[in-house]
Amino acid sequence: MPSSPLESVEFVVKHYNLAVTFACGQAFRWRQSGGAWEGVIGSRWVRLRQEEDCISAESFAPADWLWLRHYLQLDVSLEEIVATFPQDPAMLAAVSHCCGMRLLRQEPWECLASFICSSTKQVVQIQQMTALLSSRFGDPLPVGEGSAAAFSFPTAARIAAATEAELRACKLGFRAPYLLGAARALDAGKIDLSRLAELPLDEARAMLIELPGVGVKIADCVLLFAYGFQRAFPVDVWIRRALREIYFPKRRPKPARILKFSQSYFGPHSGYAQQYLFHYMRTSRGRSRRSA
DNA sequence: GGCCAGGCGCGTA
DNA sequence: TACGCGCATGGC
Q: How high is the pLDDT of residue A111?
């Protein structure tokens, strides 16, 4: 039994859709239970509910709730961000389709590890892998009554102490040596994740791709979802397909052309715009793959 | 049963 | 710079 009481709080926030935010493929450990979302932020279990412009939260011994405000990015004005997107038909449709979708500010190591696991995996499978890693190597946390067991995400040091076979047993497949290598590099102090936030985007990216299993795409996911670099623009198969179909329908652009376009067209919050396109393509119109 | 998945690393042209 | 391939595994 938890020794400290469950506490609760309410936030009033406009233009925030918790369900889309948790389901859009940026974070992988949120679970819907009844009308609530349950998850773990750092070493805290949290239960969140939303009713229109009110988000209520429950957690144990939260002290203050700044950690949650920061994670949810409650002080960000979504209206101001969306106003910077290009006003073309596809972006307008994506914004309409993903109404209230926000970018979270995740813990860097968990985000990095999750996306190392993401290579050629669907979102549901990434959820499965991160759940297995947490339950086998993380620490159990106190949870609210009636909730499923919850675990902290294992530290890099804990993963570094595991064997490749143990990671493969978490269904990581060929990603296991990548995650192990990255965890051991961090545990050995080759890169300090806590210092990347101070660097320019290009330098932070260059540091991350030194890690095994981390290329430009995964680095950009981490830079966007954990550090909030607004111009980090992950290009995965969905985004590449979207850019080709929507913006280069009559020719097959070279990768360098796609890259240049993505860096200039979408404005100062291009990473945000990218996530709107990503979720829009995956959940509305992108189900046929013949034109890829 | 075949295709695809929030790729990376490496070899080759 | 661009392309192809192997890598594990499960959903659809």
A: 98
Q: Which residues of chain A have pLDDT under 70?
A: 1-3, 285-292
The closest of A269, A267, A244, A277 to A24, measured between CA atoms, is A277
Cβ A256 to strand C below 7 Å: yes
Pairing of strands A140-141, A44-51: unpaired
pLDDT tens digits, one per residue of A143-152: 999 999 999 9
Q: How far apart are CA A243 and CA A107, in angstroms?
A: 29
What CA–CA distance (Å, rounded) separates A224 from A247?
23
Does this model's pTM top 0.85? My answer is yes
Name the helix (H) or strand (E) containing A109. helix A108-116
**CA of A172: nucleotide with nearest C1':** C8
Q: How confident is the model at residue A285, as a pLDDT?
A: 60
**Smallest Cα–C1' distance to nucleotide B6: which residue has it?**
A236
Sign of CA pseudo-dihedral A126, A145, A33, A71 = negative
Give one DSSP letter per residue of A24-43, joined into a string: SSS----EEETTEEEEEETT
Provide the pLDDT for residue A273. 98
CA–CA separation, A213 vs A154, rounded Å? 18
Q: What is the pLDDT of residue A162?
A: 98
Which residues numbered 107-136 in chain A sit less than 7 A from strand B, measured from CB?
115, 118-123, 125-126
